[in-house]
Amino acid sequence: MLSPGKKYRIIRPTTGIHLADGVGRVVSVPTGGVITVLSGPNENGKLHDKGLVYTLWEERTVALFAVDVEERGIEVKQPDSDHDSDKSATA
Questions:
Q1: DSSP letters along 21-58, please?
Q2: How many domains does the chain divide into?
């Protein structure tokens, strides 16, 4: 399930819309691009704006179809900070 904060590596180029200066511009997130989900389904599990999910890619907010992210992206697992910070030196 797409949730805010999750990261995905794109495995096939994906087309989206970047809104800049009030104008929507078509952009292509290339293979290998990493996106971060900014908005996901609401509390009822419904996506806003006709199935769009808002993502961050290269410091730009890009609207992508959720189905494209699910089919063309692989979740990037983020390290668990609780376990990583528990690295104590032994004497």
A1: TTEEEEEEEPTT-EEEE-----TTSPPSTTTEEEEEET
A2: 1
